[in-house]
Each structure stands twice: as C-alpha cells, then as structure tokens.
Fold:
Amino acid sequence: MSGPPPTPGVPPSGDAHAPRTGGPARGARGGLLQRMDKGGLAHVVAVGSGKGGVGKSSVTALLGAELRRRGHTVGILDADITGPSIPKLLGVAGPLLDRGEGIEPATSREGISVVSSQFMVEDEQTPVIWRGPLVTRLITQFFGSVQWGKLDYLLIDMPPGTSDVPLTVFQTIPIDGMVFVLTPQELAALIVKKAMNMARELHVPLLGVVENMASVACPHCGQRFEPFGPSRVGGVAAEYGIPVLGQLPVTPAVSELGDAGRLGEHTSPEVAGLGVAFEKSVQNATKDSMTVL
Amino acid sequence: MSGPPPTPGVPPSGDAHAPRTGGPARGARGGLLQRMDKGGLAHVVAVGSGKGGVGKSSVTALLGAELRRRGHTVGILDADITGPSIPKLLGVAGPLLDRGEGIEPATSREGISVVSSQFMVEDEQTPVIWRGPLVTRLITQFFGSVQWGKLDYLLIDMPPGTSDVPLTVFQTIPIDGMVFVLTPQELAALIVKKAMNMARELHVPLLGVVENMASVACPHCGQRFEPFGPSRVGGVAAEYGIPVLGQLPVTPAVSELGDAGRLGEHTSPEVAGLGVAFEKSVQNATKDSMTVL
Structure:
C-alpha cells in the first residue's frame, strides 16, 4: 500500500450521497438508491447511539413495549446485522417465513413485530460475516420485502458507527427522525455527536436524546450514585436544540429481564416518561414537516 | 426488492475467504489480498469484543500503558475507524505526518505509538462516513504504510461486530492472536462468542478473555456489588479452553482519567495482573506456533 490515505469527513464523490428530497439518490456504486415507500407505516423512527454498548437495543425494546402499553401497533427492524440484540431481549425467535406475499415478521409476547438477522442463522452463536454490500442489501429487504402491514410505529435499531448501515438506512428508508442514546461518559457523548452530525448532514430530523445508565442504587445501603460519572445529556441536548426524552438508571431488573428474554415486561416511571416524551417529539417532528410541505 | 435474503453465517463465495498460510488470499472483489509483513513488530495482537461499549478501547489503552510500565515498546493501531476512542483516552492528537518515508504515528505521554482515523478529521466531532471498501483500504494503510519501527507489541483496537474491518484485519495483517473483552451481561457473552467463532473460523488464535465492569464499590457504604449481574467470564473461557486474563471493576478513576485523556496513568492490582497474564498468553501462543512449524 502507498500513497496518501483518503480524506475522511465528507464521503468521496460517487461513494455516498445525501438523498435528494423527492427524488432518487446515487448509491455506493453509482447506481440509483430509491427511497422506499412508507406503505402502512404511520411513523418510522431510527434509534442510534454512535458508540455501541450504551444500551441502545434495550432502550429500543423498552420503548417498543411501552408504546404497545400505550395502545399502539409497533414493529422493530433490527438493523444491527452483525450484532443483533432485539430477539434475545424480547425472547422472540425465527425463522422468517415467506408464504408468497413477502417475509412475515416474527411477533414478540407483547405483540411487537420483529425482523432480525438473528432469525437467519442456525444458532444464536453463529456470526454473520458479511461485507458492506450484502449488509446493505439485507437492510433494504428488511424494510421493503417484509409484510409489516399497518403499524403506528416502526422502530429501527441501528448499529453503532457511521458506516454502511446508517448510510443505507438514511438513503433508502423514509424515516421521520432519529432518537439517540448515550451514557454519561464523555467519550459516549463525543461519539454520539458524530452520529448526530452524520444524521444532520443527511437531513434526518433529530428527535431527542435518551441517557442510559445514568445512576445505580446500591443494593446494600440503598443510596443512589453515578457509576459512570455526572450526566452530560443536558449539555448535548442543548447543543443540538433537541429535548431529553428520558434518563434511565442501571437496574438489576433490566439485566435480569433482558437475559431472560422478557425485557418487554419491565415498567418504571422512567420508561413511562420516555414513552410520553417520545410520542410528543414524533408528533412535533411530523407536524413540522407537514407545515413545511 | 425481491427474492430470498442472502444466507448468512458463512461468507458467500468470492466475498470473503480465510487467508491461506504462506500464500495470498482472494479478497472482496476477487483481487489478491496479501498478508503483509510483520517487519519490526515482535507481537501483533488484536483486542476485540463482539458487542461495543464493553470498554474494549479502555482495556486496550490500560493494557498498552501497563506493557510500557513493564519495559516494552508498544503501539496501538486504532482500527475502529468510525468510532475511534484511543486518542481521547490517551490524550494524543494528530495530524499524521508523512515526511517521505511513510506515515509517522503520534506518540502518547507514555510513549505509545498511536495511529487513528481521529487524527484525520478537523475536529473530534466530525464523523467518518465511509462505506466498507474505503474503511478496508485505510486499515491496510494503517498497518502497511505507517513507520511503526521496532515494537515489542502492536495492539489493534478492533471495532465491534463481525463485518468488513475484522475480515480485513484477519486477512491482511499478520496477527499472532486476539484477546476478547466482555461485560457480565448474557447478551455481551453471547455476542462475544460470535466474534470468537469468527476468529476461529479464520484461524486466528484466541489468547484469552477479559471481563470489564464486573463489579463496582458503593461510594456511600464502600460495599462492592455487581451492577450488571453475576460474572460469566469463567464459563465463556472454559467453553473455548482459553484463560481469563483479568477482571476489571467499574472505577470512577477510569471514567475520570479517560475523560481527561490520561487513562495511561491508571494503575491497579487488576491492571498489573492483566499485563502479566497477557504476556504469558502471548508467549504461549507464539511458542505453540513455533513448535508447529
């Protein structure tokens, strides 16, 4: 290898373009990337994080279950192809069936429709070893070839990072906006800003931020403390002019229910508050875009 | 979009092949992927996690600094192109210079040579929005076009997941083995197994596992508890027949020093133990491969 490294930051010409509103965008190989139809989906919202391991999938699952409790129909598209977590957290398994009318999603105990790469491997320890173009193809199939039917909310559990999958989602899926999850560490705040800047560059509305693992209660003395340092979510939200949708603590119940595939059963005042704030934020974003039109 | 989704698990023909020992392997576009020379690097070890956010970069930085304290020359190749953490944790900045003899790594206060995509962007919040092929090219440049010089240990901080970057690293960089970091949650254990299975499939020696965030001490009553549930590292290590190299607690000092770019200053009996166990494990792996030859 020789020569200077390619310049990062802005995607090189021909390799990644922001979608043009109302028209097709050019894709990775110069081909046309067409934004797909929303069909029967009232709201499509991506949940991302920048940095992995902040509990983004847990927040997605908790939010989906809360929206169900609030009387809505809900689906989750697990876009974390190489690290799928949703099936394990909600205790839902494949295989995905296609009886001639497209892929049918699996259904969780809470009635959440779920599609995940996890349903396509023999056992839960088999890795999905794919390069970007195949991952990209699967993502578009998970949206366009799945019989989602009519849903009030389709949540897209995004993988960490700012590479192929977010680009593909932003370019081909008609998302209404994106929610970002972070933890109190400065590094998590730093990397979530990269993901938020990417979304902004690609004209995806930022709906709000959720702070996870903000505090923990000592099981011995009952006192609460901040295991990862003081909260930073207020500063991040203010910097981007978006609301804080919730702050969730580290709770043994979340670990235990998640490990048991029953995370959908977890309720708390914090989760209930997240549901209310999320719906309000989606309504605001949708209202705004209708005003613009 | 129509047609059945592609079959995951095993990489499709022509898209990803295990390197053949002593010879070239075919790469993503059917071109030749040549394993590069080790040059002056005595040991090249990848640090990976499967799931992100388990503190893999912190473990890499702590391990690198401990190896320095043990009298070794150390480099860190930050292969987490879209979510680089090492520069922030060790307080080291770019730009990368090339005075005609290849890219010169930056140097941390501890004397660790560091190369990261972070050094190539204007400010630390600019996202690197790249599709796989460009990321792949950068990784091979970070290894092959950088003047690493003579080092006892080059640590490669891997991104989470099992997609392009790990494939590229396994196919083109002559690594001696890989260390895996996980946290106590069952999900983290599950996803680390995927990454470990991928490494195994591609004939990368598994050197051992490190458990991070195993316990935390309450600042009010001083008692220790397991915020993410009971440890699972022993089970994972036994299943793969590899050693547990260390168990690190959640410590305010790690968050604070990491946020301040001074993580290299953190010492503890656990970090010292990790250094000893790591070196032993590398020596065993290298000895074994020499015996085989």
Summary: The first strand of chain A starts at residue 25 and ends at 26. Helices of chain A lie at 56-69, 86-90, 132-144, 164-172, 186-201, 233-240, 252-259, 269-292. The first helix of chain A runs from residue 56 to 69.
